Amino acid sequence: MIPELSPTLIRRRLTSLFPAELVEGIARERDAVQRHRKIDITMLVWSLILGFAVDGETRSIAAFQRAYQTATNQTVVRSSFYDRFTPELGDLLSDLLAHALEEVAVPHTIAPQLTQFRDTMIADATVFRLHRLLTAFPATHDDQSGAKLHLVYNVTKQTLAQFKLTDERTHESSQFRTGNWLRGRLFLFDLGFYGYRRFALIDENDGYFVSRLKTNANPLIVDERRKWRGRAISLTGSHLRDHLSKLKRKHIDVTGEFGFKRRQYGESRSAATREFRVVGVRNENTDDYHLYVTNLPDEFTPEQVAALYSFRWKVELLFRELKSRYGLEKFETGNKAIAELLVVAALLTLLVSRALLAVFQELDPDVEYPEERWATTFRSVAQPVLGDLGVALGHPPPNLPELVRREARQPERSRLTLNKRVAHAFNTEMRP
């Protein structure tokens, strides 16, 4: 039976996520409000979260101003609106993002075997372009500016766990912290995070990992974890690549020995070795193996290890959603503080979208909501949702004729249209 949907369902979820009292309280603490408030700080926040769809895919202050004015039926001078984009407003958005990271978590069981882990997490980063004059974010090319967004995505709770913004030149692996927070968690890494010292630290902190094996990695095989019938080639005592081209078995499941350098202390840096499990799944189409390094126990079969690694695609889809649906990197500002603020606003858009998705998943547990299809739908209704929130927060419905008149007319009387320029030329010529 299809559940009956209340017209106020979306409004109630969003206002419970960020109540006006919460927004206003943090704004006062962060000094993000002025004594004589012409701008409603709560609606400004919602305009930054939901107003991204006004001008195509561009996150510009002018677009947010139009979104705010439409939702509040209030005219705001451009300079007054621009002046609100301060580091204090950025602090307010960051606090709201931290709040949302806790509130939007929706525990979700992928498979019973994964419940033994506290969380299954994916670490990755994406690069995006900024205004070329924004020198605070140097890119790999001297004539560009670029930022890198580092994320840790929690697959189990379907939400972000960590994020950090750096310039494009910062390597993603330098932003991944090790320590006791790794305990009991499973991490899925791409090759940007590949490092045996990192893998050893995760293992020493009772965490788990899965990574693709680098093509130049050739560990010594110290044990075969699975016995093969018949005249199978023995791999123990040899290096992995020695026999790889000769193997025809469906799986490889061995223990490999890896050498690496420990962190430098003073003038010395000691060498170390560590044993990790190496598994391979044969790809019949390409006649080679997909190889992975992990410390997962034997109860996880090679096919399951490969399937777990494929979950990394989740974070790639997340980056694509941020860029193509929510306007990440479509910034028209050379101001560092505003650029950082807009990145946080894009992440808030993502979390608000996820919060609403969770509501519909709870209402329709037997219905699939593909995340990219959901993102497209959410983008299409963001502006009406913003208007509905404006009414809920006490603002009058928009006066559409006045809105059209205000936005469509020529803002400067001295700037002539083509018709008037031509008419002006003729009028000038006809004067005695």
UniProtKB/TrEMBL annotation:
Entry superkingdom: Archaea
Domain (Transposase IS4-like): residue spans on this chain: 117-349
A Pfam family matched in the record: DDE_Tnp_1
InterPro entries referenced in this protein's UniProt entry, alphabetically: RNaseH-like_sf (IPR012337), Transpos_IS4 (IPR047952), Transposase_11 (IPR002559)
One annotated GO biological process: DNA transposition
GO MF term list: DNA binding; transposase activity
SUPFAM superfamilies listed in its UniProt record: Ribonuclease H-like
Keywords: DNA recombination, DNA-binding, Plasmid, Transposition
Similarity annotation: Belongs to the transposase 11 family.
Protein name: IS4 family transposase
